TrEMBL record:
Keywords: ATP-binding, Nucleotide-binding, Transport. The keyword Transmembrane helix does not apply. SMART domains: AAA. This is ABC transporter ATP-binding protein. SUPFAM superfamilies: P-loop containing nucleoside triphosphate hydrolases. InterPro entries: AAA+_ATPase (IPR003593), ABC_transporter-like_ATP-bd (IPR003439), ABC_transporter-like_CS (IPR017871), ABC_Transporter_VariousFunc (IPR051782), P-loop_NTPase (IPR027417). The lineage of its organism: Bacteria, Bacillati, Bacillota, Bacilli, Bacillales. GO terms for molecular function: ATP binding. Residues 1-233 form the ABC transporter domain.
Length: 301
């Protein structure tokens, strides 16, 4: 089996009011993995640790087979593309084309045709000064700079922040095409459920600096469901149902039940003669909300 693109073992970063970790994570090569979590859950902090822009207090990080610490090596940086959550204002006085000329010095694989194709697709005027660009234009340009050297690994921190719907679709298409070779890896943080649904193969949920789990997206969406079940008057111990997240009385002899394991829940109901009246898959944001609730209960207990 291929080694992971990113491997994090027992990583902890302590701040005065926030602790990230301990985090253990293996991001697979050749796939898009989305990190999803509420504001302040530590997504950007994790990205900065992965890129050696911030130091963890404990643990090990390996990116593209290199242990953290080998990152001062430009050859290593050239294998990665990064779009941070906030862009730096240091280069604001430059025109886009000057910033591109400056950036390409660091990337031996800079692909001028690819750069120009992306400039066209995202409709960027390269003669414009960066400070004159709108937030969305700047975001598109940052994406272009991160992708013009065809990196093996792309780290995108809320890539669509500020993009209009047309630019957003272009971004989705550009990332899909980037992944076509099957050898590239994307790790992205996102709050946009539609973006995660369209792009991600795997989803990592992070809450209060801790990883709740990493899931294959399709399996996750197939497993979490809400069902209405008719118990025909019998009292059910819903808590013993596999995957039971919550069960609430819905009138008559009907219950509304949320499960994280639809297949086993159905079998459990069948074995007890409980009739499932309807079932509906949960959306990713509902799943995240349910997981946050589970985590809250776990911490309280
Ligand atoms: N440079 C820093 N110094 C000290 N604390 C920081 C720093 N950057 C972030 N934090 C804190 O770390 C915590 C996690 O923030 P982080 O930006 O990593 O979360 P996030 O999941 O990316 O949030 P968002 O979705 O809002 O972008 C927050 O409590 C934040 O205040």
């Amino acid at each position: 089996m291929q080694s992971p693109a990113i491997e994090v073992k027992g990583m902890v970063q302590k701040r005065s009011h926030f602790e990230l970790g301990p985090i253990d994570l293996a991001i697979p090569r050749g796939y898009v993995t989305a990190i999803v979590g509420p504001n302040g859950s530590g997504k950007s902090s994790l990205f900065r640790c992965l890129l050696d822009l911030a130091k963890p207090d404990r643990g090990e990080i390996e990116v593209l087979g290199e242990k953290q610490g080998a990152f001062d090596n430009w050859q290593m940086k050239a294998r990665i593309g990064y779009v941070p959550e906030e862009n730096s204002s240091v280069y604001d006085h430059m025109k886009a084309e000057q910033k591109a000329a400056f950036t390409r010095q660091w990337y031996p694989q800079w692909d001028i045709n690819r750069y120009q194709e992306l400039i066209r697709r995202f409709e960027i005027d390269p003669s414009l000064k960066l400070r004159k660009m709108s937030k969305g234009m700047r975001r598109k340009f940052d994406l272009i700079l991160a992708m013009a050297h065809n990196p093996e690994l792309l780290l995108l921190d809320e890539p669509s922040s500020g993009l209009d719907p047309i630019a957003w679709r272009t971004m989705i298409d550009v990332i899909h095409r980037y992944m076509e070779s099957g050898e590239r890896t994307v790790l992205m943080a996102s709050h946009i459920i539609d973006e995660v649904r369209r792009l991600a193969d795997y989803i990592v949920f992070i809450v209060h600096g801790r990883v709740l789990g990493m899931y294959e997206k399709d399996t996750l969406l197939e497993s979490w469901s809400m069902l209405y079940a008719d118990t025909a008057g019998s009292k059910e111990q819903w808590r013993s149902m596999p995957g039971c997240h919550s069960a609430e009385f819905a009138g008559g002899s009907t219950y509304k039940v949320v499960t994280s394991n639809m297949i086993e829940s159905e079998e459990w109901c069948r074995a007890r003669g409980i009739h499932i009246l309807s079932k509906q898959r949960l959306e990713l944001d509902d799943i995240l909300t349910a997981m946050i609730e589970q985590e809250r209960l776990r911490i309280q207990s």
